[in-house]
UniProtKB/TrEMBL annotation:
Its main location: cytoplasm. SUPFAM superfamilies: An anticodon-binding domain of class I aminoacyl-tRNA synthetases (SSF48163), Nucleotidylyl transferase (SSF52374). The keyword Aminoacyl-tRNA synthetase applies. GO terms for biological process: glutamyl-tRNA aminoacylation. ATP binds at K243. PROSITE patterns: AA_TRNA_LIGASE_I (PS00178). InterPro entries: aa-tRNA-synth_I_cd-bd (IPR045462), aa-tRNA-synth_I_codon-bd_sub2 (IPR020751), aa-tRNA-synth_I_CS (IPR001412), aa_tRNA-synth_I_cd-bd_sf (IPR008925), Glu-tRNA-ligase_bac/mito (IPR004527), Glu/Gln-tRNA-synth (IPR000924), Glu/Gln-tRNA-synth_Ib_cat-dom (IPR020058), GluQ/Sye (IPR049940). Its EC number is 6.1.1.17. Residues 322-464 form the Aminoacyl-tRNA synthetase class I anticodon-binding domain. This is Glutamate--tRNA ligase.
Amino acid sequence: MSPTPPVTRFAPSPTGALHIGGARTALFNWLYARGHGGTFLLRIEDTDVARSNPENTQIILDGLRWLGLDWDGEPISQATRADRHAEVAHQMLTAGKAFKCFSTPEEIEVFRENARENKESTLFRSPWRDVAESDHPDAPHAVRLKAPRDGSTTLTDAVQGDVTWSNDQLDDMILLRSDGTPVYMLAVVVDDHDMGVTHVIRGDDHLSNAFRQNMIYDAMGWPKPVLSHIPLIFGADGKKLSKRHGATAAADYQKMGFPAAGMRNYLARLGWSHGDDEFFTDAQAQEWFDLDGIGKSPARFDLKKLEHICGQHMAVMDDAALLQELESYLTATGALPLTERQQKDMLAAMPHLKERAKTFPDVIEKAHFVLADTPIVPDEKAAGLLDATAQQYFTELTPHLQNVNWDRTTLEEAVAAFATARDTKLGKLAGPLRAALAGRSVSPSVFDMMLVLGRDETLSRLRAVSA
């Protein structure tokens, strides 16, 4: 009998942009589901009404779409399920697994202040836990879960191994506030159960939450998901990744011009490994990814490694797909879209543009020769190469190129023969030719540019300099 396909979920809070750590969590859930023929669900944990907003939700969705992480079905809003969360709390109350607590916030704070003064545990033990219903006052109350008081709880985690927590460190946590609204801990468990989630893959900063959420599974008698708490992402200095390390939002990396395939590859390697493999495709990642490949130690974000991986992906990407993603990059950065002519020329030039490029700004810089309008206006460095000698060379070279076959071998031979006849070297001509054709001192090969531009445009640009 084949195993049941897994159901994973990514559950971001729309209180800000999609953090790079959240993007990696989503990627791990996506890879595990896709690689095992399962389902990847998306839940928006928007119960914090004061800080959640639709704009942030859209930013998160856009970030996931840019990364290419498609989810199954419609995203679920946690806030819309409050009635279901409360229903489960009342079921636990009826079953004697939970109780009504009439302690006021002021009473709880007084208890904690006294505990701090006496250097005792501030873990609140409600005096209402075992009070009979007949002795309850007619007053506002919270609903609390009855936590075990003795012994310990051990959870088996696919990444962390067996983790044990002393039960005397578990509080009778609130399930419903005095206004009847459910708390986050309850909502997460109810939603995971109702969505059929079989594997919870999330950051290890949630490990302590797992013990509190485990009490709800026990109280309801529900099957428990496989837990995998993955290490956090640190900066190069070994400290938790934050804004002081630079960009932390996934959208920032799109605007910096990193290709999504390279970003997926690099994020997958942050905390997970498959032997010594560094560069791999999505298909390989889905085939290889498993929970036992995730390490326990925090991963370090290295921008240079990201650039290296992205350069490898750009080199092998389909030219049309690369152009399409470049246009998405232009849209994300607010740049003007490519014209029809620019799209056509960029596609023709792409095999040369993507060589040694690591980001889309690299591609655009090298593409100046097809993006710029004629006449080409050289930058300062290129203009310095277009002196009187270069102008004389172009005046004499142009007729030699007028009728030759327009292929790379013939062009190289024609220019090399011209250089020999003028007692100079091909390298001495390359700089001025590059400046005339691209208006830049850095560009693709002179002969690659000639082939992309074609005979008429090439000669037109040379004449414009020599005129």
